[in-house]
Amino acid sequence: MSKKDDPLEIRNVSIYHANTYEKVRTVGMSFAKWLSEKRNTPVFRMVTVSAEDINNYVEKRLDQYKRGEITAATLQTDISCLKKIENLVNHYYGKVDWDIPTERSARREKWGLPKRERDKTTVQRGPAYTKKQADRIVMEVEKRYGRLAADALRFCRATGCRLESLVDMKEKGVRIERINIEAGTVSLLEKGGKWRTVKYDQRYDNFMRELKSRAESSGRKGPLFACFGTGEMSGDPDYSQLTNDQLRTIKKSAARRLEAMVKEIAAENGFHGRGIHGFRKEFAVRRHSEYIQEIKELVRAGDWKGLSERFKVSEQKARDMVASWIKAGEDKKERRRVSRAMDNAARLRLSKDLGHNRLDVTFAYVPRKK
Predict the structure, then answer these.
(1) Which pLDDT score is estimated for 3?
(2) Per the record's keyword annotation, is Zinc included, yes or no (predicted)?
């Protein structure tokens, strides 16, 4: 059963993902430390926390945002985590009322919160790796840490997968049966228990075939990149005796190690701050460029039907795009308007490839040209 199958009262007191657990735990500990110092006591009961305490903490975090110490996204996440903790306290320990609105719009109105600005989170993570930079990192990782670690990075470049897919030891790890060579696709199980099937970059077709062949030869049926620290693929590691907490620790350790490999080599070569996410962005930039080119060809050919079918836009929008392009002629302003519509169509399809399904998210991966 997944999150979407549960009733609202169950979702309000449930945590479905390890990353969500870590966020809620981190925010809870940060709040507890702040309140302990404020009350000058090492311990306190959560049922004694008041709405005034929450207001004071949010005001403190809002001041940090205004000083540029945290982002709007971090501030919003903090409040969402406190709301989750309030629900959990009410469910397990006793009645509290922290007066945290459920709706984000109501939270913004109550505390004067800023809207989340994705453009401002892009800079700190950095742009996508160039092909030359990505090639360099993969080559050095293979030299220093072995083929399996390098293959994990190649897989990310080919599919735009998240780091979790590369390091998860359970169901979310990449598996041999989820690579469909004939269709040129990979199915990924990601956060929230959601599946997505993405066409992998065809430049990696030989890599995918070889990866699948090596997995079959070695008897690997579980996660393909488990134990990448050993350098080569072998049979499935035995995790049957490990608890979920132990598996989570192994997963976090693997994620940190893979990130460290990439950042170490990137720093040595003069480009910083992107880690594994830089490969996901590289995939997004390349895929967006391919989609734009495909859309332009369809529009110029007057193929509104193909445009509608391939990019899931309504027939009316597809017709309008084709007609507007023809009508624009040399009118630069009108051509810019049509180009913006084509860009949006490409981004909507890209967002599904990335597992987001929202156009606005793509600007963090592929900034729009000014």
Answers:
(1) 62
(2) no
* Whether 338 contacts 323, CB under 8 Å: no
pLDDT, tens digit, for every residue of 211-253? 999 988 888 888 888 765 545 555 566 666 778 888 888 888 8
Q: Which residues pair with 197 in a beta bridge?
A: 187
| Residue 330 DSSP symbol | T
Do residues 285 and 363 lie in contact, with contact meaning Cβ atoms separated by under 8 Å?
no
Q: What is the pLDDT of residues 69-117, one digit of tens each?
A: 888 888 999 999 999 999 999 988 878 999 999 998 899 899 998 876 5
Side by side, which strands form the sheet with 194-199? Answer: 179-180, 185-190, 194-199
Q: Are 146 and 231 in contact (CB under 8 A)?
A: yes
Phi, psi of 127 (to 5 degrees): -75, 180
**Mind listing the domains of the chain with CATH numbers?**
3-116 (1.10.150), 131-275 (1.10.443), 279-364 (no CATH)
What are the helix (H) ranges across 46-200?
A: 51-66, 72-92, 104-111, 118-125, 131-145, 147-159, 163-167
Reduced DSSP (H G I as helix, E B as strand, rest coil) percent helix, strand, coil of the chain, to 5: 65, 5, 30
DSSP conformation letters of 166-194: HH-SSTTS--GGGEETTTTEEEEEEGGGE
Instruction: State how far the Cα of 279 lies from the Cα of 161, in Å rounded to an integer.
Output: 9
Four-point Cα dihedral 97, 69, 249, 159, nearest 10: 110
pLDDT in tens, 248-290: 888 888 888 999 999 999 989 888 767 899 999 999 999 999 9
Query: Rounded to 5 degrees, what are φ and ψ at 180?
Result: -105, 100
* Token representation of residue 90: 């009410």
